[in-house]
Structures
1.
Amino acid sequence: MSEAGERPVALVTGGGTGIGAACCRRLASEGFRVGIHYRSSEEKAKKLADELAATPGGAFLIKADLMDPASLDGLVAELKDAAGRVDVLVNNAGYNVNAPMLAMNLEQYDAVASVARGTWYLTKLVLRRFMLRKGTGRIINISSVVGHTGNAGQIPYTMVKAGLDAFVKSLAQELAGREILVNAVAPGFIDTDMTEELPAEIKQSILGRIPLGRMGNAEEIADVVAFLATRGSYIQGSVLHVNGGMYGG
């Protein structure tokens, strides 16, 4: 995807931690210059950028609040100055509130849903400013197995994740005839800081639902993201399930 003398650029939202950080490392290993987006995990994002400085493309940091459209306008303007292009957009950032429906208030729901709105708006901006002008690109959404199975206590989160999959199917149709591929990766239960905090009995219950008998790791998700970013040239509007057999899709 790179032009002569230029290194392709990948932007990963929520790139400082967990699956996002693994995606940044993997894409850097594929030769991308990586934009590490963060909102509050500045220390971790800076540490990752320092780590990736030794890679051929290196990395740069970009701070923005996905819940704030004005902040995203600023992010895209900063991207233009810092990189001049975006070849791959990985919409990884998310937000969750764990609470039963009857205990959740509108503010909590809106906080989860507003990240989805930000993902939509950022994708629109990146498409208009970079990918449509260049005529190529890859957009990869990180959704979740719970967008297909549901999960008690996470109704807004499951709604958002299911919506990300519908988003790629619809946008792929809108981009028909263009060399811009839009897909999603739906992880199962992955060993991250979030799952590390789960009580032991809940972990055992989850493991009992996974045919492979273990949680996945962030690198296994990043491998699939890298495949979609660099190969996968005949995959469009698809959701790739990476869940150890928990949900066959």
2.
Amino acid sequence: MTSASQPIEKYFVAYLLDGKGGASTLDVSQVAAWRPGEGLLWVHLNYTNSQDQKWLTESSTLDNLVVEALLAEETRPRTTAIGEGLLIALRGVNHTPGADPDDMVAIRIWIDKERVITTRKRDLLSISDLVENLESGRGPTSAAEFLGELVDRLVWRMSDTVDQFEDRVADIEERVLESNSSTIRYELATLRRQAITLRRYLAPQREALARLIGEKVDWIDEGSRLKMREVSDRLIRHIEDLDAVRERATVTQEELLSRLSEQLNKRMYVLSVVAAIFLPLGFLTGLLGINVGGIPGSDYALAFWVFVAIIVGIIAFQLILFRWKKWL
């Protein structure tokens, strides 16, 4: 057997845990020759790969229901006890550069006392963390520890994303008075969408962990249950933080819309005042501008200046009236 030093690939990968924190890699023939009691077997598959699908269907000896769940394209976080094993579906944050954090990566797990089978489509850093720990001899020593460490890494990897959401909403709150409101509105809408989507996936994951802790499976010891309970508490805090981010984003958006509405009202008010001032002036100029006989002052040389004086007087009267009415 070779050491567990190679990175996780896009096809069949298997590890045999030595019960001391380390592991060695196995090929397909070695996995076929494996027997319970030789150590915890971990098979990690890509469910979109035809070879992995074939092995899971023909060589895994799993129940058809379990195989279908491990190969399902869409999953919802859950925990189901089947005999002495657990069928688990969880999600982790997508840390691929350029990917949206709310585009979560699903991992499906079948685990019993002797064997672990995990399937995924995209790589998860939580799985890479497990492999690195096994390489350094600090990995899990049993199925219960494997499960506890996996859920721990999944939730721990969410912390940075939730913290980034909080930092982003705090930054937007500080910039809400800036003039570039269209950019802020877009950022707020994006942040709210991501927070809502992420919470939508984490809420059922909380239920899955609660079910996992409550399952009466003999090979999960009390220490592992306590660790998973602590992980569940951290997940609940992440969900509460996402709720706070969403509420802060909503309040900030309402404040932004209120300020935009206030600015619009001020502009409309100025336009209304200007229109009110020039409305009677427009009436007078239109009335005297008609091309018919009998217009007053048509034969008087100073009629134009008299008319200008009348207009100035009307404007002065309106300004005094608006000031008295406190419209200005």
